[in-house]
Specification:
Blueprint lengths: L8 E4 L3 E6 L11 E6 L1 H11 L4 E4 L1 E3 L2 H12 L8 E3 L6 E5 L7 E5 L23 E5 L7 H16 L3 E5 L9 H11 L5 E2 L3 H8 L4 H9 L5 E5 L5 E5 L2 E5 L13 H15 L10 H18 L12 H8 L8
Parallel strand pairs: 1-4, 1-9, 2-7, 5-6, 9-10, 10-11, 11-12
Antiparallel strand pairs: 2-3, 7-8, 12-13, 13-14
Length: 331
């Protein structure tokens, strides 16, 4: 008998504890840090949960205080963490952000030999996917090693067997593996998904310098149903069938931190696509795709306004108020 609660979305990946200095400048001279958690898949899980979806996060954590913090934070957000396993031998990963005062922050990962990097395909439980509608994965977990690549691919195959739709964000992390290996693995995962969510730089990395419209056709020809391509400050482009749809950007006056904006985009996009889909498969129209891209752009823009990967993600009510032009009563 399945003892796992029914959810809309399952996601699998590594989360780490994040240390951020209270001041800008070199980490070498930063005296004080704040501590939070971060991970692409758990960022998406939080975003979807705040938008009304029920989400299960699958991972492997060390038997340490950092693992405890990740579990308690995600559980506190309403995410089902019953499929998380604890590893007594290997630690929970950590990473640091360095704010230099200009451009994106520098990222320093300490995740080699982490508990998540030892997640093997035989540790997957098919019951974790039963009753769920959708699986979301990224290219980060496969970058941790050959066995985690196979683990994510096996999760995608299990989801497909159970009739779930699948989304894949390549989320390229060049620091974690060679360009040749990254390109080979990420391209092999594209045909396994229904929704492909690359940034335009990632699309170029995968298939070379092409016209923007060509990227959509190339990935659709690999069996993807929908491509949602992030264009940064220029908004986003969606492709399905023979159609392409442009969604204008949400303009912000200042950018605090871009890390996590792509995960926010994914949560916004999936929240609309899944809300409009039946249990028998995705419902795709130009109007639905346009709405999904617009919400994705909005969440991505909101995420850049906060120092942290997920803390600023809005609730569904907050999104609706923003779209309706309503102001929040604060006192």
């Amino acid at each position: 008998m399945n003892s796992f609660p029914q959810v809309d979305v399952v996601t699998i990946g590594e989360s780490m504890v994040l240390f951020q200095p209270l001041t800008s400048g070199s980490l070498a001279y930063a005296p004080l840090f704040t501590k939070s958690i971060a991970g692409a898949e758990s960022n998406v899980a939080i975003g979807l949960t705040r938008l009304g979806m029920k989400v299960r996060w699958i991972s492997r954590l060390g038997m340490d205080p950092f693992g405890n913090q990740i579990l308690s934070t995600l559980a506190g957000e309403g995410i089902d963490v019953s499929a998380v396993t604890r590893d007594p031998l290997w630690p929970t990963g950590i990473y640091f952000k360095e704010f230099t005062g200009f451009g994106d922050p520098n990222i320093y990962f300490y995740r080699k030999l982490s508990a998540a990097s030892h997640f093997t395909p035989d540790a997957l439980n098919s019951q974790w996917f039963e009753g769920a509608r959708h699986l979301h994965v990224t290219g980060i977990m496969p970058a941790l090693g050959a066995q985690t690549t196979e683990t994510v691919k096996e999760a995608m195959k299990l989801a497909r067997k159970q009739g779930m739709t699948i989304s894949f964000d390549p989320n390229l992390r060049r620091k974690l593996w060679s360009e040749e290996q990254a390109r080979e693995v990420l391209l092999s995962m594209v045909p396994l998904c229904d929704y492909f969510l690359p940034g335009i730089e990632e699309a170029e990395f995968l298939v070379g310098d092409r016209n923007e419209l060509e990227y959509g056709k190339i990935f659709l020809d690999q069996g993807v149903k929908v491509v949602a391509m992030k264009l940064g400050e220029r908004g986003s482009l969606g492709f399905y069938g023979n159609e392409s749809i442009k969604a204008e950007p949400v303009v912000v006056s200042t950018v605090v931190d871009t890390v996590g904006a792509g995960d926010a985009f994914a949560a916004g996009f999936l929240s609309v696509m899944l809300a409009e889909s039946s249990w028998h498969g995705p419902t795709i129209t130009s109007d639905i795709l346009k709405d999904a891209l617009q919400r994705a752009n909005l969440l991505g823009a909101i995420a850049t306004q906060f120092k942290g990967d997920w803390e600023g993600l809005p609730t569904l009510a907050e999104v609706q108020n923003i779209l309706n032009g309503k102001k929040t009563i604060t006192r």
